[in-house]
Every structure is written in C-alpha cells, then in structure tokens.
Structure to design on (402 residues):
C-alpha cells in the first residue's frame, strides 16, 4: 500500500542523485550538508530531495509568518558581522525588520514506513525535533527534518529599533552561535545514521 | 495496513473524549481551542490527543534548544504586560533569559491516510505550516499541527540586556499580537474544517 515499487523508485532516486551532482558542479549545493546527504543516500530506501544547512535572513515584513508584502533584504549561509546588520538598520523598512536564523532543514523521500521510522528516530536523537512526514504519495513518504536551532528576532517595529545597539556584538555572537549549533546537529545526524548503517534497511 | 480497526479505534477515541470532558470540568482545557477540537472530534476518523492555543514563556537557558540546565521562569497563555517582563529582567539569570512565544499546537490521531490528507490540507490553508505525521502505529497516524506564529527572542546574554528597554511597550505589543495571530489561525482552521465537513470522511 502506497509504498513505491522497485523500478520507479530507482528511476526517481537516480534522477535526484543526478540533480545533486549538477548542484555540486555549479557550486549550488550547500557543502556543509554533503556528508549527511551521502549518508542518507547510501541507504537503499531513502533519497534526499532538498536541503539547507541553515541561514541568516533579514526580512522586511509586517510579521514573519505573513508572506504578504514581505521581502528578503539580507541572506547569508555564513556568520554575519555587526557592520552587515548596521547597514540594514541604517535604511528605513517599509514595514519592520526581522532577523530570522533558520536551522538546518532536509527533505528525504523514504520508500516505506519502516525506513521513515529509522530516519525520524535518528533525526530526533540529533535534535531535529518537530520532524515528520509532510506528504504521502505513490512516490513514497516525504519526510521533513527540521532542527530547532533558530531565532525569530524583531529588529524594529516600524522605524523604532527594538535591539539594544550597545550590545550589538552580543547579538551577533548569538546569531552566529545559532548557525554553528545547527551545523553541529548536521554532523551529529550524519554520525548517528552512519553508526546504525544497515539497521532498519 | 497499519490503519486502526473499528472497535479498538472507537474505544481509544472514547477514552480521549472522556479525558477531554474531565479537563473541561477542572478548567484545565484551553477554552480558546475548544470549538476547533469539537470540529475535529466530530469527524469519525479523527480525534485530538492534546492541544495548546499558544503561550508566552520566559526561560533561563544557555540556548532555548538545549534543555540541559534550562528552566521556565514565567509562563502565561494570555497577553503579558511590560511590568511582568521588567519583573523578570530585575532578577539575574543563571544563564540567559529568552522570551518564547509559541504558536498553537495540536495533536490529532487519524484513522487512515485519506483523513491525514484532509486534516493536513485544512491545516496548511489555515497557516499551520510544518505540520505532518510524527508517528505511525497500530493506533493510527499521529498528526502534529503547528502554527508559525512564534517568536524566539533573546532578552539577555548573561546579565547584558539585549532589548532596547526604551521600546519595551513596542516589544510587549508585538508579543501579544503574536498570541492574537495564533488565536486567529485557530478560528480559521475551525472554519475551514467546518466548511468542508463530510469531505474526505
């Protein structure tokens, strides 16, 4: 029932693996998740469809959960500096500025529920809470893995700055540590999957 | 396969409904989600196992995603005031203070995948993103619905205050609006489920 059958599964997995190789060639793939993706893709009943190692965004929005009229004004997958933050704050937002640090996120297609359980069990042990199956189709079970290493930090309300700018270096340190904590969880998840190789497969 | 069968399903659903009535009697159930829970529980193939309409917490922690040595110093399911926030900030944290506004969260047991799809589709339309199946057993499919109306806001780093206290009323307004936005999504989800009653059942 609903589990994806042999040939079609292999064809779709090959297609996603081909796309990943292309992404590596053009430098599009986030190298920090590469070893984790390899660990997952070495399992016959799983393949990864997308991934992000985490990122820092500043958006101009009424609220971060309201897409309407929201725009990204800064985005980086690496640590940021106070001058980058101050540069944004020196301009006027249309609505308000929000600093969002997103944790690592991965999407994994699993061939059956036994494999889903293995992946989710590993993910939760590595701190990827709130992970779960987000859709089920004849392609398989699509599992989303999200780490809780994140910040949702209002920088301004309109033009009023809500941050204590005297402590901007402390805020920057915190933002960057949030990224680093996400990277640690990527490595932890890779090690947990590797150490259990063969189990549940 | 794995779908929960008739009698056992009905017995477990009745047990959860009995617990919910008890929770209402002792004032434990969060009244803001009551109509939504009724809408879900009126569907033969779903029952709710737990729920929260959203809340404001202040925790003393190294990082909010590290449970170790973290403790809750303030918790409220209603709007907060600046004096409540200042009272916490007048004390020294062991680590750092974090203000967390959690959005509404619900857990729904579904009897089969068709019902899961219905619930997830309604949930996503009401802004409960990142919702998904978190576990599968002979009891059914456990679906977690989470709204993205949340804040993860570092108040201090050690004893250094990261907020601009001159704008504390703006921060409080934002915290309370985050709660209200969550309540709106609860009402929206109830209306969406009610309007499609019978579909997918």
């Amino acid at each position: 029932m609903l589990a994806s059958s042999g040939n079609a599964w292999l064809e779709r997995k090959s297609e996603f693996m081909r796309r990943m190789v292309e992404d590596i060639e053009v430098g599009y793939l986030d190298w920090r998740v590469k070893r984790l993706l390899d660990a997952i893709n070495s399992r016959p009943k799983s393949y990864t469809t997308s991934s992000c190692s985490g990122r820092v965004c500043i958006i101009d929005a009424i609220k971060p959960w309201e897409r309407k009229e929201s725009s990204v004004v800064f985005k980086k997958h690496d640590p940021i500096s106070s001058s980058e933050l101050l540069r944004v704050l020196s301009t006027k937002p249309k609505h308000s500025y929000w600093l969002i640090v997103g944790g690592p996120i991965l999407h994994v297609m699993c061939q059956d529920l036994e494999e889903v359980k293995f992946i989710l069990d590993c993910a939760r042990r590595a701190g990827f809470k709130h992970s779960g199956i987000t859709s089920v189709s004849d392609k398989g079970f699509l599992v989303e893995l999200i780490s809780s290493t994140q910040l949702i930090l209002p920088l301004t309300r309109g033009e009023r700055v809500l941050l204590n700018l005297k402590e901007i270096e402390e805020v920057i340190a915190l933002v960057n540590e949030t990224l680093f904590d996400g990277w640690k969880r990527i490595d932890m998840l890779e090690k947990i999957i590797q150490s259990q190789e063969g189990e549940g497969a």
In short: The first strand of chain A starts at residue 46 and ends at 52. The helical segments of chain A are 6-25, 34-41, 82-89, 113-125, 168-195.
